[in-house]
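Structure tokens please, single chain.
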Amino acid sequence: MLQKIKALAQQYAPEFVEIRHHLHAHPELSYQEFETSKFVQEKLNGLKIPFEIKATTGVIGLIKGKNPEKRIIALRADMDALPIKEENNISYKSKNEGVMHACGHDVHTTCLLGAAKILNELKEEWEGTVKLIFQPGEEKNPGGASLLIKEGVLKDPEPASIFGLHVHPGLAVGKMSFRAGKVMASADEIYITVKGKGGHAAAPHLCIDPILIASHLIIALQQIASRHNNPHNPTVLSITSFQGGATTNVIPNEVKLKGTFRAMNETWRFKAHDLIKKMATDLVHSMGGEIDLLIDVGYPSVYNNEELNGIARLMAEEFVGTGNVEETEPRMGAEDFGYYSQQIPGCFFRLGVMNEKKGITSGVHTPTFNIDESAIETGMGMMAWLGVGLCPPKRSEGGN
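Here you go.
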């Protein structure tokens, strides 16, 4: 079976490179993936794979092999793009001004479509059912995964496990990487308005200066990570926007701050939320100001089931060779795949797309991101291989 899948991946790769070109040239923002969704639906229709629509643009396909109840797994890809103006000089450059597939979701969708074609062609030779999840809105809260789960994507039939891949611009093409346990952080957005009393900058004693208060607050909040958190527990708290005032001689009435909080431990995550709220409120009030504070709870951390990850890694070694499978470094970036891995055993792995000789080295979320497209053959083949060969694991003890 492995050799059949590899041969089909090689045979169909040129077709799916062209599919990737189409998707890359026609990117759509989160929750606006209407044409992308239609394109995916057309491809599934062409393969006679049944599907349903969830969360407006999500496409959920189902491929049944022999004995379809024996094992059920899900394979997931995301479809949305980013608000970035592309700077690549390529024939398939984005045609939608200011929108770009700078995170590789065009690659993810292409690989899952390719895997679907392979799995469908071989469905008389493998057992079980594979659920295909083409997901909207990974790049923006509340996350398309959360919306799909609310609409029952993990039911009828209920998969025992789920897989997702993500391009890795720091990993050479032809390679993959895996990591058991905690692999990506949660991500919450912080919005703070510090309210004071504005006035003439030459008479600060008559004002309550929100710029001074907000400055103290930014420094104080760093204690959440440096003094309240176990140093062995990865955490990031970054204030990334400070907006207030417009001229040199006026103290404004208010200052707005924005930032992000990241964590690998869900218990600590919500304890930190309470600490942030208390510290910010107490400090601002002590300096005479008022405060509005919102922590917009975002994606949970991504936790790879240990047994599932181990099986998948062995399968990857069979697919590309032991020397081409590496350990994924833990990342403080976030992914809404974490919603799935909270519900059922999940494994989120990396697909190498870098080619230094060709100058393909730009990171994701940059206007020059691109891939060595030979990665598509590897990605679609690996997803198909997982679809036919995986045994469901037991749920992790403790998790995250």
